[in-house]
Specification:
By secondary structure, this protein is mainly alpha-helical. It has three helices and no strands. The protein has helices at about 1-30, 35-70, 75-105.
Length: about 110
């Protein structure tokens, strides 16, 4: 009976030690994840690049649809540019949301 009790205590002790080691590793990893200037600059550049790509993609798609439909869909260039700006704005909002979530997790 004593032998079983001692074995149980030893197993419990080992389990507690493993949990402490895991907690120490997790806390060390958290402190290593500080906000880096290079990450911020990359995110800002990615923001501008993705907004420009969103604008260009939407404008090109509208031009293709306009040429393929042969005038059945009446869209002038001003409307196309406005819709492309709206698309770029939505892409920008999504990227800002992703950056906010990312940097909240790091801080």
């Amino acid at each position: 009976m004593n032998k079983d009790k001692k074995l149980y205590q030893d197993e419990t002790q080992k389990s507690v030690e493993r949990l402490r080691e895991a907690a120490a590793k997790i806390s060390e990893e958290k402190y290593e994840e500080k906000i880096d200037v290079r990450d911020v600059v990359k995110d800002i550049l990615f923001f501008f690049l993705s907004v420009a790509i969103g604008f260009a993609w939407m404008l090109i798609m509208q031009l293709i649809i306009s040429f393929v439909s042969l005038g059945y869909i009446h869209m002038n260039i001003e409307k196309m540019i406005i819709v492309s700006f709206v698309c770029a704005f939505l892409v920008g909002i999504f990227n800002i949301y992703k950056m906010v979530v990312k940097y909240r997790k790091k801080s």
